[in-house]
Design brief:
The structure holds two protein chains of two kinds. By secondary structure, chain A is α+β, with helices and mostly antiparallel strands. Chain A is built from six helices and eight strands; from the N terminus they run ααααααββββββββ. In chain A, strands 1, 2, 3, 4, 5, 6, 7 and 8 form an eight-stranded antiparallel sheet that branches. Chain B is 75% helix and 0% strand. Chain B is built from nine helices and no strands. The chains are: A alpha+beta, B mainly alpha.
């Protein structure tokens, strides 16, 4: 039988928070209680074992996935001086006006380019534009469109397409929305969603589980999701879009895979 | 100069999403390891880690700057893990039952790695106990910090830790460690 007080002291000793007085008291108790000695030894062994377990590195893709989910992709920098401060500093130097002109021109050019990139956003018609892990699924040029669903509402427009990618089923969700939209794809029991790739857009959150894909807060998005397995010939997928008070539910055919 | 946690949070709240990258860089490894010890499966752990950071980002406005940021983040991670573990409780229990039977058949665990056995033993603990052991031993947190994260009194942390260690010892002995 071990008195609770001393059991607590054993724990405190193991955790390194025992006082000197408590340590002496415990030492005396251990000297006359074999059971307490055994408990202490066993707990110490357990803790030693736990200490031997190494910390593992997370998978290398994890950070990218997290940041992609949040629409963050660029390395962070600490806030620098404000633009006006920079300009003032530049003009205070003899050679500064030249640098300032270059700086302003670069800045304006950047803004124009960014504007053009945003304006030139179009659905990806050329499958070869898909990059990364998707390239491992055969030749993307051979992908075939199985079904195509056009979305045309007051608040949203785009296309949802099912694709036969060398025997794998992919679904492309390409949407632009005036308000915050939510997209839901449900595969039913015969399908298991595997993963996704965001190609364009700044959707705040995508959730993929085997039964369902949900994309929330869509402003402008272009996603490609794929199925891990369990493909059945000709089973439909359910596509649901919610924008404001409007909900659209449409089946998407998956064809003869 | 790298932002500290509180400054990174402030920047995020001002709309600088990229400041969140500092937080991800700093905490993805401990959070991943915390969740991995809780759920054991690396893929689940990666998915849940992603969920934790997304939730944290969405809830940043609710973060009280008087708190330590890591305590707040760990709390989200623990709650996310506990929800996940509780949802699959049925499966886990079945797995445990099967493992237990296997163990009495002797040879199943003899070639297993020590870490693997420790993971196994940890998974046999009730999730609430497991969380305490993980926070104490893998993250070196104090009783007080653990109490804050799990929202239980320090006294409860001590008593649960004591029980958890004894149970763990029993499981490890059964597993041949």
């Amino acid at each position: 039988m071990i008195e609770q007080k001393y059991a607590d002291l054993i724990q405190k000793e193991i955790d390194g928070v025992i006082t000197d007085a408590e340590g002496r008291s415990l030492k005396d108790y251990l000297a006359r209680n074999k059971e307490a000695r055994r408990l202490r030894e066993e707990l110490q062994k357990t803790v030693e074992r736990l200490k031997s377990v190494p910390q593992l590195d997370p998978p290398p893709y994890l950070k990218k996935h997290i940041l992609n989910s949040l629409g963050v992709g660029q390395p962070v920098t600490t806030p620098g001086p404000r633009l006006l401060d920079r300009l003032a500093k530049a003009f205070s130097h003899r050679l500064a006006p030249r640098y300032a002109i270059v700086f302003c021109s670069g800045f304006c050019l950047g803004i124009i380019l960014l504007f053009l990139v945003l304006q030139s956003y179009e659905p990806v018609s050329d499958m070869s534009q898909f990059t990364g892990a998707l390239m491992t699924v055969g030749d993307t040029r051979s992908w075939k469109v199985i079904d195509s669903l056009s979305i045309e509402t007051e608040d949203a427009r785009g296309v949802v397409r099912s694709l036969d990618a060398a025997g794998h089923l992919f679904v492309e969700v390409d949407l632009r929305s005036a308000g915050k939209a939510e997209v839901e794809l449900t595969g039913g029991p015969d399908y298991a969603f595997g993963s996704y790739t965001k190609l364009v857009g700044d959707a705040l959150f995508i959730e993929v589980n085997p039964a369902c894909v949900k994309i929330s807060h869509v402003d402008k998005a272009h996603y490609l999701v794929w199925f891990a397995g369990g493909l059945q010939k000709g089973r439909e997928l359910d596509f649901k879009l919610r924008v404001g008070a409007t909900t659209i539910t449409e089946p998407v055919q998956t064809g003869d895979m | 100069m790298e932002l500290n946690d509180h400054d990174a949070v402030k920047e995020c709240l001002r709309g600088n999403k990229q400041a969140f990258e500092v937080i991800v860089d700093r905490y993805q490894k401990p959070i991943y390891n915390l969740i991995l010890r809780m759920v054991r499966d690396p893929e689940d752990a990666a998915d849940l880690t992603q969920t934790v950071f997304v939730r944290a980002y969405e809830k940043l406005k609710t973060f009280d700057p008087r708190q330590k940021f890591f305590s707040w983040l760990y709390r989200i991670a623990i709650n996310t893990s506990l929800n996940f573990v509780n949802q699959r409780k049925h499966t886990v229990r079945m797995d445990h039952a099967a493992s237990y039977e296997d163990m009495t058949a002797h040879d199943q665990y003899e070639k297993a790695e020590r870490a693997e056995k420790l993971g196994e033993a940890l998974m046999r603990l009730r999730p609430e106990y497991r969380a305490i052991v993980i926070l104490r031993h893998f993250h070196d947190l104090s009783y007080w910090e653990i109490g804050k994260i799990l929202d239980v009194p320090e006294k409860t942390v001590k008593s649960r830790l004591f029980s958890a260690r004894q149970l763990l010892r029993t499981f490890l002995v059964r597993l041949g460690l």
